[in-house]
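Repro:
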Amino acid sequence: MKIAVIQGPNINMLGIREQHIYGPMSMDQIHEQLKNAAAQNGVELEFFQSNLEGEIVDRIQECLGTVDGIMINPAAFSHTSIAIKDALSAVAMPTVEVHISNIYKREEFRQKSITAGASTGVISGFGPFGYHMGLIALMQIIAEIKAAENAQQQSAE
């Protein structure tokens, strides 16, 4: 099982920016903990971060046929990017959107996620642990899809 972890703008500044909102952990520390959890479950992770919307769209498109699912923190693009939503819809694969902060307790403009409409589920407000929750959710979703595909194959035989 392979999962792409896609991080949006300013996630590379975690541990430095607004620690009262995002906490003290850096993106690299979050990735290291996530990589350890994934390895314990036989899951391969690919990490990508960009501050550029088009690069994120390109990376989502590259996931088609190369990974089983996407975990994405579109960050500020969650609230503005129809292009990222459309890319997620186009690849049509299991996707979990993760937000470190609880977007529903923040400014009004942050309380709506455009990209969530193309995601299987959204995890918001659990800090860096939200990425672990996203990993568990994706492992379960992907396992269920594979089980259904295997059952369908066996029925066809």
